[in-house]
Amino acid sequence: MRFRREAGECSCVSGRLRASVEGTMPPMIMNGTHDSYLVILSLAVAAFASFTALSLAGRIRASQGQWRRVWLAAAAVTLGGGIWSMHFVAMLAFSMPGMTMSYDPGLTVGSLALAIGFTAAGLATIDWQHAASRRTGAAGLLIATGVVAMHYVGMAAMRMPATVRYDPRWVTLSVAIAVVAATAAVWLASREQGLRGRVLAAGVMGAAIAGMHYAGMYAATFTASAQIDAATGVASVGQAYLAVAISIVTILILLLSLGAARVERAFQGARRREARSALRLEVADILRGDDAEVALSRVAELLGTHFRVARAGFGDLDPEADVFDYRLCWTDGSVPRLTGRFPAAAFGRRIAQALGNGETVVIDDIFSAALSDEQGAHDTARLGDTRAILVVPFVRDGRLRTIVYLNSRQPRAWRSDEVTFMEEIADRIRLVIERVRAEAQLRELNATLEARVDARTRELRLAEQARRETDELYRAYFENAPDPLFVIGVAADGGFVVEQVNPAHERGVGYPLEQIRGKRIDDILPRRAAERVIGTYHHVVATRAIHRYREVVTLGGVPQHWDTTLVPLQGPDGAIVKVIGSSRDITAQVSAEDALRQSQKMEAMGQLTGGVAHDFNNLLTPIMGVLDRLHRKGMGDERDRRLIGGALQSAERARVLVQRLLSFARRQPLQPVPVDVAALVTGIVELVASAIGPTVRIEVAAPDGLPAALADANQLEMALLNLSVNARDAMPDGGTLRIAVDQVAVTPDSGDRADPGGPPAGQYVCLTVTDTGVGMDDETRLRAIEPFFSTKGVGRGTGLGLSMAHGLAAQLGGALTIESRPNQGTTIALWLPQSAQVAIAAPPLYDVTAPERGGSALLVDDEDAVRESAAQMLADLGFAVTSAASAEEAWGLIERGFAPDLLVTDHVMPGMTGGELAAAVRDRTTATKVLIISGYAEEGGIPATLSRLTKPFVQADLAAALRRL
Fold first, then answer.
1. Which domain holds residue 314?
2. Residues 579 and 629 in one domain
3. Under 8 Å between Cβ of 335 and 384
4. For residue 501, what pLDDT is reported?
């Protein structure tokens, strides 16, 4: 097979030939040819040389010192010689017709030396531990220079009857191919490659080397300088044999190099395995020692020596402070020892995070690795004179505890087998590190063991005591709580079972624990009640929330109001297993609330009644004044005088009725005076009879001659009326009401003093009200005088009657006692202190008092009728009367110089009140006497030093009030 290049036609890898024949043959283009077999052989030599060089590069990386230089020289000879051999075989494959070629031995050998020398220089430039782009480029440029120089020196070594010139473009291309091929070779050689990678890389490098050569050949133009044979030329037999021989020798050299590398790798692997086995045994012997600290120190030294690093050691992490404590460190003397405490962040956030995740940190060069691309990591590396690190973490319970580290001063490519072996050794010493930690903890524990034991014992004792106290407290509360408490269990089928109830529940609800424990709710309660209760339990279980509700239940035939609170209790699996509940009987509270509402209604009615009574007083004042005047004057005939007297009596009764209304409205102040209680009872019997109805018979025992009692007649009448109404309500089917008055002496030894609520020792007038009704039990009797307490039911009483009577007796210095038995009636006694004075008899309605005469009077009232009537009374009493419709008008008269001897003024008026007017007059002069008249019973706003007269009044009342001034 031949490859030709004819005019306008390219052969595969031929040079270009222009033959010029001297003499008879004119210049002509001659075709050079390449022997295809030798071309293929040259490609094989280039690829095989590349493969061998890549294989030897691995030995360079794995070796140190002299052996590295040996393997570097071998790689240079292999790659440089292989390139030269490929070039020489390719040159031998080239021939020109009729032209004999030979080679200058010196230049040929020189070309070989150039290839080997520049290749050696380039390989020596490479940083075999850490590939750097700058060094890779420099090494590629050196090797490319050697290849180009070898090629063109080899071309210059050719001896033939022709001259050679080169096409600059193709020369440039060949140089570029050489630079790219050499740089690629350096880049591949500086990195670890597997077999497949080396084969692929060798093919690429071989093709590139051949491409450079044949591009250079294509750049050459040969011009014949003598007569040549125009026949087609082929490589001679001698050239072919020489090319094959050179190829065989080259391949043998390459094979020997590969074999040597293989053998050396095997020996080195054996040595490494032997060294690692020895290290394992030595570490095992050391770790069996008693002193763990010493053992770890020796292990650190062995690790540093074996891995040929500058520093090795251990560090413990304090998780609370996030600080590494470096306690053990070995160095080869070239770097400082790493001891003390360093923040974990000083080594870089990424490194700390990787160690925390339990990952082995392998960094060939701290200043270029992505994992250490942080300023803190760089600063720490400079401080410790460190470039490469290998760190194995110990993680326990998900937290980083300890690290084992190796530091190198120079960038270092950590091999995978080194990392694996380091992790293996670290795993072997893990237990020792844990033992060191445990020993330290044990020493610390032993130092405080006794105190810790005492403290723990005391804590347990206190905890047990607290638990018992808590249990006792809960038990005491459960057993003695006044409210019913209960515990309901949730059955597997969703039913509810009674587990526990307290004594209050037994008393209030009526189910003893022994009878209902372990029973289902629907087996205890009636169907409708059970459905209602179970429904509330289901609600609590479904909502898993506290549930409060109020219901009315009938217990013992009596409706009762109950408030209940249910609390769900979860089990270990989160399911509701119990319902804890508490109930409270709020029947009394509900009754009190109803009574309060009723009392508020009564208060509103009382306020209305007080206002109406005031208006009545203002109306009655002129009526009674006129009738009194007519009565005193004896106007008309006998029939007229009788009618006037009757009208005056009716007006007086109306006044008494208004006073009772005011007393009912709580607006009549207590005015204790000597009262003939027997006469009061006799006078009020008709009113009592009309109040209690015809079904109750009244008996009265009120003998004459009894001493007077200190009391307020109006309030006493109201209390007697209330007690009579209560007695009537206690006799729904009728009966007898007995009202009695008697004189009783109470001594310290008397039976009445035995009652805690009885009267103190002294003389009393006792008013008793006795009925033949249903009576009261002891519990009801003791609560009867409580405000708002009533047994009549909602809407049938305020519960204030007995409370008011009790309060009246207490204010007077007496007492109220109750004697009652169920179905035997009730006796209520009002103990009124006996008065040393004689009861004051009410003056006759028609008593005419002699008029009092004297001076000038200023009368002030905003009611015209009252003002006219009072003015007439004052005039009849001998006063020169000046009237004013308001306090402001009266004060204007006084300021203008009017100085009355008497000021009679209403109190409640628009603008200035009578009390304010009286105070202003008193400030101006003390010579003027003042009398306040008011239709209200309260004394609010009226100074206590001022005399007062309550409306309505007649002339006699006015005269009596003036005499008291």
1. 289-446
2. no
3. yes
4. 87
